[in-house]
Amino acid sequence: MRCMWKNRRLVHLIFVLYCFWDITEAFSNYRRGFALSRDVIISRQKLRRNSQLNFSRYDNLISGVAEISMGMSIGTLWSEFSVIVTGCGPIQMSDFLERFCYEGVIAVSCAMIFMKIVTGKSLAVLSDEYFDGLLRLEDSTLLQVSIAEALTFLAVVGAFVALGSQILNGVDMNGLSGIDIEMCRAVRSLG
Question: Is 123 within 8 Å of 44 (Cβ atoms)?
Fold first, then answer.
């Protein structure tokens, strides 16, 4: 038993020494890295630019934000359709999720309008221009951004259509919700 403990300590000591050696080697290579020739740096840049597998690390981030925006827009459109048809929000969607979808659409639409006013360009065009060069985005990511913008625009227009249908149907709207809260509570308690 004691012999095995000594071997473990020896293995740990070797591991620590190896890690220390690896760190010092990496640091010395890092310092020598500044002396690389210009040809090596240019060939690395060409390799990055021509490779289909080496897209920007921000590609997943932009794609994820666009997908979240699409999900919030679809949730908002579902809620608006339900308000137009039944006069209440969807029964299967929780109030928190419905509110989150509406707030997300408001935030994305504000960003879209702000960027359109300031630059005169859409978010997809701005993303393409900003990440041009070595940090190029995939075409599918730019398509997702365009779809998210279109769905957000539809959700904003849908909010006005839903509000107009509630006014035309003579619904007693309580506050800013655009629905008759008491009637919707009664419908939810039955379901």
Answer: no
- State residue 139's pLDDT score: 84
pLDDT tens sequence across 12-54: 556 554 544 444 444 444 444 444 334 434 444 444 444 455 4
> Residue 79 CB: number of other CB atoms within 10 A?
25
Specify the amino acid at residue 35: A
C-alpha pair distances (Å), 65 with each of 24, 52, 134, 144, 157: 39, 22, 21, 9, 21
Task: Return the number of other C-beta atoms located less than 10 Å from residue 123's C-beta.
Answer: 23
Asked if 162 contacts 80 with a C-beta cutoff of 8 angstroms, the reply is: yes
Angle, CA 157 vertex, CA 115 and CA 186 arms, to 5°: 130
| CB contact set of 185 (below 8 Å; sequence gap of 6+) | none
**List of residues 6+ apart from 42 with CB closer than 8 A:** none
Residues 6+ apart with CB under 8 A from 151: 69, 70, 73, 74, 77
CB 123 within 8 A of CB 112: yes
Cβ neighbours of 106 (radius 10 Å): 16
183: three-class secondary structure by DSSP = helix
Which pTM was predicted?
A: 0.67
